[in-house]
Structure formats: structure tokens, C-alpha cells
Amino acid sequence: MRKFLPWIIAGGLLLIIGFWYIGIKNGAVRVNQEVNKEWGNVETSYQRRNDLIGNLVKTVQGSADFEKSTLEAVIKARSEATSVKIDPTNITPEQLAQFNQAQGNLNSSLSRLLVTVEQYPDLKANQNFLKLQDELASTENQILTARTRFNESVQKYNNYILVFPNSMFLGNYKEKPYFDAVAGAEKPVDVEFDFNNEKK
């Protein structure tokens, strides 16, 4: 019996190492799936905003004398924002920056639209428009929450795959980028109202 003891110990150690390795791999799958889920929530929030913007544009188009160029800018930015697709399993900093830039351009053109509406008393009093505006504000909060949770899940994922000894076994898992603010977001927005040309 004594001569088999080293083999039993070696077999036990191999079993422990095997379960430990499986645990590391399964943990990587779990944190990766969490990132994918949170990215799905980000996309859902942005999709809701895009849908609301479409309804807002239709409402504004009903005002015959509304600036055509302002509407066209929003429609174009919305189209560009929806055309950027990202696979969360293979996300790169460049892809995320491109997505972020497209969404930032849409946000900028939407802000110009909402400022321009100030010159149209009928639109400002339109109940449908006011409801859509409130829903957009609520959706912006949802987007902020979704982006924050995505970054938290990326931090958890990156910490898991980069720490030793996990990094020894997870070479095929790559570090994922964080959602950064759009360039220039730290600067205050300069909003100008031209009350001299306000339409009656």
C-alpha cells in the first residue's frame, strides 16, 4: 500500500490543479458574459434614444416653417449613430471610440434641435413634443447608468484576466476598453438664444 502512496498523492494533486484550472476558465466565461450583457444594455438604451429621436423629428417636421437644415443634421447623425455596430466579444478601443463619437455627434445635433425649438412657441406647447422631450431626458439617464455598469463589468473582467496566476491560463482573453467620455465633453456647452429673431 505504501508504494502506491506517492501515486495517490500525485493523482490527488493533479485533480486539485485540474479543478482549479477549470474554476479559472469558468470564472473567465462568467465575467466575459457579464460584459456582453452590460453592452447589450448599453445598446438597448441607445436604441430607445434613437427611436425617440425619430418620433421627435416627425413631430417637429409637422411645423412647416421649421429649419430644414437643423432637421437634416439630426436625421443624418441618427443614421450614422445606428450604423456603428460593435461585437462585445471582440471590442477594441478604436471601435468604442468610433461608437462614442457617432453617439456624441447625434447628441450634439439633437441639442441644436432642442435649442432651435425655443423659437417656435407652437412646438414648445405641443404636448406630444413635451412628452418626447421628457422621455429623452429619462433615456439619457438610462444611458449614463448603462455605460457606468458596462465600465464596472469591464473593470471586473480586466482584473480577473490580468491578475496572476489567472493570466497564465487566460492568454486568449484580451483586455477590454472602457467607455470614455466624448472628446471635449469636459468643456461647458455654449448655448446662444437669438431672441431678436424669435418667431411669433
Automatic annotation (TrEMBL):
<keyword id="KW-0812">Transmembrane</keyword>
<feature type="transmembrane region" description="Helical">
    <location>
        <begin position="6"/>
        <end position="24"/>
    </location>
</feature>
<protein>
    <submittedName>
        <fullName>LemA family protein</fullName>
    </submittedName>
</protein>
<dbReference type="InterPro" id="IPR007156">
    <property type="entry name" value="MamQ_LemA"/>
</dbReference>
<keyword id="KW-0472">Membrane</keyword>
<comment type="similarity">
    <text>Belongs to the LemA family.</text>
</comment>
<keyword id="KW-1133">Transmembrane helix</keyword>
<dbReference type="InterPro" id="IPR023353">
    <property type="entry name" value="LemA-like_dom_sf"/>
</dbReference>
<dbReference type="Pfam" id="PF04011">
    <property type="entry name" value="LemA"/>
</dbReference>
